[in-house]
Amino acid sequence: MDKAILTCALTGVLTNPKQHPVPVTPAQMASEARDAFNAGASIMHIHMRSQEEGMGHMPSWDPDVAENIVSAIREACPGVIINLTTGVVGKDISGPLACIRRVKPEIAACNAGSLNYLKLKEDGSWAWPPMVFDNPVAKVQQFLDVMEEAGTHPEFECFDVGIVRSVTMYLKNGMLKPTMGRAEYNLVMGVASGMPCDADLLALLPKYMAQDSVWQTTLIGRTEIWPVHQKTADLGGMLRTGLEDTFYLPGGERAKGNGELIAALAVCAHNAGRGIASPSEARAMLGLRAG
Questions:
Q1: What confidence tens digit (pLDDT) does each residue in 115-150 have?
Q2: Are 278 and 37 in contact (CB under 8 A)?
Q3: Spans of all domains in the chain
Q4: Domain 3-286 class?
Q5: Which has the closest alpha carbon to 73: 22, 32, 106, 102?
Q6: Cβ-Cβ contacts under 8 Å for 21 (sequence gap 6 or more)
């Protein structure tokens, strides 16, 4: 595609704001979103954090918190596209569903398959107790049903090659309704027990996607992610970064905020001879409802 859609992942799940410069409050989220918006991001991927004193490292599924954050970002960034997180472990998905129903985001993440979520320390011990990020088909369908109800476009999060292939089966099965926009794959690379952040692997993946679909990469890591961002741009994929995914700029320096990361991502698009999509252009490319 001639133009690249830039998404900013503003804050992430559990990163401690006392240790890293991640936004938590509605005002902080709006300020960081504005910097990213000015640098070219059309889409803001949002995780909500607890607003209680000293608890900003913990996630929140309070619809009031979601509404306050989304409203602040929309006011700061006229025309911006909101992409809401939904990821939860276990069968109880009432929190994410309540947030979708309240804020009616144009896009929401739809985690498309299960993953053994693992990480090792240098000494070989587990960084956290081994866990399963469970996303069986019935759970995926529950999310899709509420997204359809809310007029929300699902972004299928793919942590492994088998999940990419599963999404293609979901599409053939008719799980994505015509009113929900074009099929969109998000290739998550760099999670220790998922797909590695590897340009050679990336080049193989588009052939496993449905025709006429859109795809992007979410790359987790440090400076090793930037050549893969460039490969994404070269192959025609959409681009995402932000403090959820990395703290490091291409030269190895720590980013002061999301705006710097999005500016570096825009360079990847320009290097590939591509322009940056405006919010209205991104809506048309994804088949979203009018914003």
A1: 999 999 999 999 999 999 999 999 999 999 999 999
A2: no
A3: 3-286
A4: alpha beta
A5: 32
A6: 243, 256, 257
**Looking at the whole model, is its pTM more than 0.90?**
yes
Which residues pair with residue 187 across a beta bridge? 158, 217
- Strand bridging mode 6-9 / 238-241: parallel
User: Which residues of the chain form beta strands (DSSP E)?
Assistant: 3-4, 6-9, 43-46, 81-84, 107-111, 115-117, 131-133, 153-158, 184-189, 214-219, 238-241, 275-276
Q: How does pLDDT run across 212-246, given as a tens digit for each residue?
A: 999 999 999 999 999 999 999 999 999 999 999 99
Q: In terms of Cα–Cα distance, which of 3, 65, 69 is closest to 33?
A: 69
**Residue 13: CB partners within 8 Å, gap ≥ 6?**
47, 59, 85, 87, 244
Alpha carbon separation from 267 to 33, 214, 229 (Å, rounded): 19, 20, 10
Contact 138, 124 (CB under 8 A): no
User: How open is the CA angle 76-10-127, to the nearest 5 degrees?
Assistant: 160
Structure-block tokens of residue 229: 């961002």
Amino acid present at 50: S
Q: What residues pair up with 214 in beta bridges, in sequence order?
A: 184
Residue in this structure with the two tokens 């401690």, named with its chain if needed:
16
